Structure formats: C-alpha cells, structure tokens
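Researcher: Let's continue the batch. This sequence belongs to AB hydrolase-1 domain-containing protein, and it's 269 residues. Same format as the previous ones, please.
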Amino acid sequence: MGTPEKSLSTALNARIIGSGNETIVLCHGFGTDQSIWDKIIPHLAENYTLVLFDWPFSGAVTDKSLYDHAKYSSFEPYADDLITIIDEMNLKCVTFVGHSMSAMIGCIASIKNPQLFKRLILVTASPRYVNIDDYKGGFESSEIEKLLSTIESEYENWVSFYGPIAVDANDAASVDKFQSCLKSMGAEVALSLAKTVFYSDYRDMLGKVQVPCTIIQSSNDKAVPLSIGNYLVENIKGMPTLEIIHMIGHFPQLTAHLKLVEVLKSIVG
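Model: Same format as before. Here are the structure tokens for AB hydrolase-1 domain-containing protein:
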C-alpha cells in the first residue's frame, strides 16, 4: 500500500490507519476535511484498515492551486481523483463511505471502475437538492439563490447562521467544528463549491450504480428530507438498503457517532 512521492494522494493528505482485512475509505463532504471522521476512527481502527484524505477544496490542503474552479464544476473530476487515489495506494475491493456530496462521487466512481469497490455506504446522500415537479430535494430555487448570495457577500455571517442548521444546534462543539472547517475553506472556494453541489442533479445516474449499496440517513436533516432515502432505494440498481439514524442534522459522524459506528459495523461485518 505504498504511496508514490508527489502523487495526488500525497498532495491530498491521504493516510492509512489500522490494519484489518476490510479496507474502508472515509470520504468527507462539503466544507469539511478528513478530521470530520475523528470521533469514529478509534472505534473502527482496531478491526479495519481505514483510508482518509482531503478533497482539493479543503482548507487542510496546503497546495491551494489544486482546487480549480473550472475543473471542479461537477462531481466527475472528484470521482476521477478518488479512482486515482485508490490506484496510487494500491487498494483493492474497498468499502467506500461517502458523506453528503461524496456519496454521489462514490457512485460515479463505482460506475467508472466497479471492480475497485466491494460496497458503497452513502451517508446523508442526495442526488439533487432543489425541488422540481414531483421531486422534493429539500430546497426551493429561491432558497439556493439566497444561500449563494449570502456566501458571496456575508460569508462569516453565513457560516454562523448555517452551522447550527447543518449540525445539531444542541451540540455546540460539533457546530464549532463544522464552522471552523468552513472558515478554513474560505468564501471564494465555498461559493464555487456550493454552486457545484446545490445545482447538481445525478438522478439519472442512479440506475447505473450496480455495486451493493447502503444508504444511511438522518431522521431530521434540513438538507436531505427523509423521502430522499426512499428515492435512492427505489432508483439505485445495486441492491440498496436503507438505514435511518434517529438524530438531528446532516453530520452523524459528529453528533451521533456511536450510532453511526454501530451501523457501519453491522454493514461491513
């Protein structure tokens, strides 16, 4: 599992923890970095090989030139990066755990290279965030426009406002953790990334996902309504199952980490 020098995996702070027979790739979502998994790592590292890295937009990545606004205008380049990292680290038949936007990235990567993946675990995933016709993504177009406008003109205020909505407001330390990651990412990157995420629509891609798949959903998530979990189960081809964690917010790895660990262990075995 050696990592070549000056590789993409090195630039994106990829690392391996643990030495179990099952390899789990933990992939963070919008506005965060790999430290978002810190609470669950001690509970998994004894039994599994864990692989973590930071996306180019992350504030934890030193080389800021890696995030190119034009390149990362869709999730496909992220999927290509994921495949490159798995190849560079010589990983085989991984269990992919993708949070938020990374769930769809993992799905795309599994369509491109299905042999790399043993299973997909999609945590608070959504193929589309904007309501349309009979599809309820969670947001009206006007809400997304307002969100983007606020990120652009009042980023610090937006971070203060959005943190307690995305994360359970009753868990102040976890809200602070998410807000710290957002501040580290910065307003310019946040605006570009938010456009990519909130205007994405990967509903048509779901039927091509054939790798066995589990959806883990929060019971009370402002960004991803409960109906989305059922939508994913109905539209993903890869024998999907749905697990619901009773919690508030979009970040089970922060505010319901023991429940998430229990579910992950039950899936991976």
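Researcher: Any comment?
Model: The mean pLDDT is 96.
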